[in-house]
């Protein structure tokens, strides 16, 4: 079988194998390696075709025997094929970013654009923006004429594109800029796709600014690369189909709701059905503290507990393809809101108060406390969730309703 794959530095976060497996039937591997190994790898070229990602899109150019017009223009190669024993370099990122803009419905014509980062992807993004008649395109880099120290002179930018790895898994919840300073912003695009929502994307969502993460670009460029690999046309409708599949496969399912509403029981059941790992943040908290939760409350107090809870959530929420049950009060702190939504579908399990247990609950020892906590949390539950599922019935029925709501109908049979 012909061999294809992805060449890059650190590739543990890559979704490319899943995407190419959905596009075609060839074998597709990851080839992570240090820069010193790139030249011998390419000279041996024991593959039919490879994609290239950070940080080697420019590194590979001298080793290509021929380049496409787009690769020459952009000085960036992300697709290499072997033709008659010779390496041909191409660039499909241009197509990918163009598709990403179109799908997001973000118009750049006659608008001031800034591009964060100056690497290979930045050059491609700048070319697309220029070709789509942006009024101006400015690259912001750490040491360039336009940098993060003087970025205030570009606070009037209307379109912002992030091409840096800042905010990418595993170092999430950080951003190159404070988006709130860009009061005239009309669109935000981040080519990062893991996590699904970087801090930059989350800020755009809060400000009601149109946005897109990098998954549509990733799938679109992969589709174009696959066309080059196999020398055949693939319908653009495949891009949307695969984006939806990858989102469903890779996003966590996070369960929120009041204590004893069924988060752990339902979570374990759907994790088993979907063949995913189940994680309970309460268990993670006890591992970190090396003591049970009631003891944390009695010895250290709620403030310490909440900080440990945030630490635990920060670690598990940036993972992919997990089922995560959370504590009832995790929604109370704003610092947790981004963490809950950065890489997950959030499901609120709602249950009638009179059906909630108060046994062994540090903060809800009686029905009066339970009602007070419910009143404090209900608005957070409803605003943070993507889906609300009634959990008053059995674990089996609740799990079935949840999976159906998330589009896993075939898993419920």
Report on the structure:
The structure is a single chain. The protein is an alpha/beta fold. The radius of gyration is 24 Å and the shape is globular. It folds into three domains: 3-94 and 218-247, Rossmann fold; 106-209, NAD(P)-binding Rossmann-like Domain (Rossmann fold, 3-Layer(aba) Sandwich), CATH 3.40.50; 251-412, 3-Layer(aba) Sandwich (Rossmann fold). A six-stranded mixed beta sheet has the order 2-1-3-5-6-4. It has a five-stranded parallel beta sheet with strand order 8-7-9-10-11, with helices on both faces. The chain has helices at 16-23, 38-44, 69-74, 93-104, 120-131, 199-206, 215-230, 237-250, 263-274, 281-289, 293-300, 302-316, 335-341, 367-384, 395-405, and strands spanning 3-8, 27-32, 49-52, 66-67, 79-83, 86-90, 112-116, 136-140, 159-162, 187-190, 211-212, 252-256, 277-280, 322-325, 344-350, 387-390. The chain is built from 15 helices and 16 strands. The mean pLDDT is 94.
Report the CATH topology name of the largest domain. Answer: Rossmann fold
- Please give the number of β-strands: 16
In round numbers, the mean pLDDT is 94
Number of separate helices: 15
CATH architecture of the largest domain: 3-Layer(aba) Sandwich
Structural class: alpha/beta
Assembly context of the chains: single chain
Strand content: 15-25%
Spatial strand sequence of the major β-sheet? 2-1-3-5-6-4
Number of domains: 3
């Amino acid at each position: 079988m012909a061999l294809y794959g992805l060449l890059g530095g650190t590739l543990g976060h890559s979704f490319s194998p899943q995407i190419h497996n959905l596009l075609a039937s060839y074998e597709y591997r990851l080839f992570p390696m240090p820069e010193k190994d790139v030249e011998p790898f390419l000279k041996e070229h024991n593959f039919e075709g490879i994609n290239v990602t950070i940080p080697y899109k420019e590194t590979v150019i001298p080793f290509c025997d021929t380049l496409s017009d787009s690769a020459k223009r952009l000085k960036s190669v992300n697709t290499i094929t072997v033709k008659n024993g010779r390496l041909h370099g191409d660039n499909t990122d241009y197509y990918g970013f163009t598709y990403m803009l179109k799908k997001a419905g973000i118009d750049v014509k006659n608008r001031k654009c800034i591009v964060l980062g100056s690497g290979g992807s930045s050059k491609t993004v700048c070319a697309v923006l220029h070709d789509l008649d942006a009024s101006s395109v400015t690259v912001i880099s750490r040491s360039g004429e336009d940098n993060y120290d003087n970025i205030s002179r570009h606070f009037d930018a209307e379109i912002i594109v992030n091409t840096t790895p800042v905010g990418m898994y595993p170092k999430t919840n950080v951003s190159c800029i404070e988006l709130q300073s860009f009061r005239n912003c009309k669109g935000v695009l981040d080519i990062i796709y893991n996590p699904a929502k970087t801090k930059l994307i989350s800020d755009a969502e809060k400000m009601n600014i149109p946005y897109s993460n990098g998954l549509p670009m990733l799938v679109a460029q992969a589709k174009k690369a696959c066309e080059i690999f196999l020398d055949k046309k693939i319908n653009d409708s495949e891009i949307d189909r695969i984006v939806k599949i990858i989102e469903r496969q890779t996003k966590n399912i996070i369960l929120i709701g009041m204590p004893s509403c069924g988060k752990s029981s339902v979570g374990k059941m759907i994790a088993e059905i979907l063949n995913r790992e189940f994680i309970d943040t309460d268990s993670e908290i006890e591992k970190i503290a090396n003591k049970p939760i009631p003891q944390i409350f009695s010895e250290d107090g709620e403030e310490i507990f909440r900080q440990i809870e945030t630490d635990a959530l920060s670690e598990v929420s940036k993972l992919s393809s997990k089922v995560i049950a959370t504590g009832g009060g995790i929604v109370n702190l704003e610092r947790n809101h981004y963490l809950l939504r950065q890489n997950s579908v959030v499901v609120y399990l709602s249950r009638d108060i009179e059906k909630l247990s108060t046994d062994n609950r540090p903060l809800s020892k009686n029905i009066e406390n339970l009602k007070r906590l419910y009143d404090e949390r209900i608005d957070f539950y409803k605003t943070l969730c993507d889906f609300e599922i009634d959990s008053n019935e059995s674990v089996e029925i609740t799990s079935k309703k949840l999976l159906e709501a998330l589009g896993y109908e075939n898993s419920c049979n």
